[in-house]
Amino acid sequence: MFNLFRRLRRPAATPPVDLTADWIVVGLGNPGARYAATRHNVGYMALDDLLAPGGDLLSPLPGTPAEVAPLNIDGHSVLAVRPTTYMNLSGEAIAPLAERLGIAADHIIVIHDELDLPAGKVRLKLGGNENGHNGLKSTTEHLGTRDYLRIRIGISRPPAGMPVPDYVLGTVDSGPELDSSIATAADAVRLIISEGMPKAQNVIHSR
């Protein structure tokens, strides 16, 4: 089962000095133990799952509100990024890194929670509206474009009468459904980078 608190126990590694990458992969969420197991943090969880097989560790990046880890996916240089801002300021971490590395929007993958998908479903898209998601709003604002790639992890809509902020900041239900969606989102990253978006959509959307 995916450990919701695994990321809190990870020691920081030495920050990389010379950053180079062909892709940026961002897991959206809110920092700190208070938010670790919430629905809004499934993007953080999926990024951890992507890092887990190689034992890669996120490190603070001086001068940027983010923790990062360099990865190699099928021969491609990838920078995994976890913003350390709150969700509504995510773009403050993403845009400076994209500019520093010279990475275009179509090589930026953002993993996030999605109210408009049933819990457990994962869907991929290029661009489009933010649908009220504050992390996406900030990313779009700071990048100056909507044309980045999204990996959307379904969390369903709140019950009638429950405010959306209370729902997304509520504890996500642990279990096989969550484990599967987190693993699928991590698989989606690998597929997008190694096979391209259309192939990744065909594979992931058939699950």
Automatic annotation (TrEMBL):
Record keyword Lyase present: no
First-listed, main subcellular location of the protein, grouped into a coarse class: cytoplasm
Sites marked Stabilizes the basic form of H active site to accept a proton: D113
Catalytic residues of the enzyme: H40 (proton acceptor)
Catalysed transformations (reactions): an N-acyl-L-alpha-aminoacyl-tRNA + H2O = an N-acyl-L-amino acid + a tRNA + H(+)
Subcellular location: Cytoplasm
Coiled coil regions in record: none
UniProt entry keywords in alphabetical sequence: Cytoplasm, Hydrolase, RNA-binding, tRNA-binding
Family: Belongs to the PTH family.
Protein name: Peptidyl-tRNA hydrolase
Species, as recorded: Corynebacterium testudinoris
Gene name of the record: pth2
